[in-house]
Amino acid sequence: SLIVSSAVVATALVAMPAQAANPIVTRFAGDPSMLVANNRVYIYATDDQGNSGTYWDSNAWRVYSSSNLVDWTDHGAPFSVSGFSWATQYAWAPSAVQRNGYYYLYLPVDRTKIGVARSTSPTGGFSDPRGSSLVERGRDANTGEEPIDPAAFVDDNGQAYLYFGGARAPKVVRLNADMISTSGGVQNLTITGTGSSTAFGEAGFVHKRNGVYYFSYSTGWPGQIAYATASNPLGPFTYRGILLDYTNNNTNHHSIAEYNGRWYIAYHRNGLPGSNDFRRSLAMDYLNYNSDGTIARVTQTSV
Ligand code: FUB
Known about the structure:
Layout: H1 6-12, E1 30-37, E2 40-46, E3 61-66, E4 73-74, E5 95-99, E6 102-109, E7 113-119, E8 135-136, E9 151-154, E10 160-164, E11 171-175, E12 182-188, E13 191-192, E14 202-209, E15 212-218, E16 225-230, E17 237-244, E18 254-259, E19 262-269, E20 281-286
Parallel strand pairs: 13-17
Antiparallel strand pairs: 1-2, 2-3, 3-4, 5-6, 6-7, 7-8, 9-10, 10-11, 11-12, 14-15, 15-16, 16-17, 18-19, 19-20
The structure holds beta-L-arabinofuranose (FUB).
GO biological process, one term: L-arabinose metabolic process
Keywords: Carbohydrate metabolism, Glycosidase, Hydrolase, Polysaccharide degradation, Signal, Xylan degradation
Active site: 31 (proton acceptor), 202 (proton donor)
């Protein structure tokens, strides 16, 4: 949860709740992808409320937003698997970015394909601008067994990338400026370092701070969120440590964003009655950097 100190409240002279609770919303959801736009934080998520409770078999995604990170609005489903004529099931971990006057959602389906949906609104009106997947196992070379868990990233120079991968195979492909096509083919992402924590499991995410590229990822099942840094978005990345420890859920999946001068991590855990590995809840906490650019271990709050 995001604890607002009384000193900050007093200085700001505004009425703010002292504390927001984790989970941040009361509907089951997982795999939060944060997007900052319109002076709000949008969170796109896998809609675990819509699954069977025995697998991640929901067919729709969910979007929430907040301006104060305390009061969250549920905007419903921005898109569902049926919006892709070429897909049948499993609406898994989304990734959202804004560019060119559009909002883009990168969406894994069928455990084997990643598609893109586009809208001029962050909360609805998304449609498939391609009519085909962006990345697909069996069609494209070097996708790995499980091309899931996309993470789109637009660099300062305009070059965009789509990171993805599960089943211990981190991948990256260049996105063209239109954000709906790729070039150059799928590359492997290299993480160098020693120890079992360097092992990539799934759920990669990229952000950039002070010219450093941070690749963070789940180490497995159960997973910690480890991170590695590089001076080039294509790597190689050097392992730096763990930024988020095991949660009380077997999967670990996060995103990182800066909002109003502070950095935040969104992730999922079991925080609602009836939770299990497939029925997760959304959490958000501060992310703190040390002066040398390393990241302090996140304090997981549950209230
Ligand atoms: O939500 C389905 C899967 O669970 C995601 O793709 C993984 O990252 C894990 O969170």
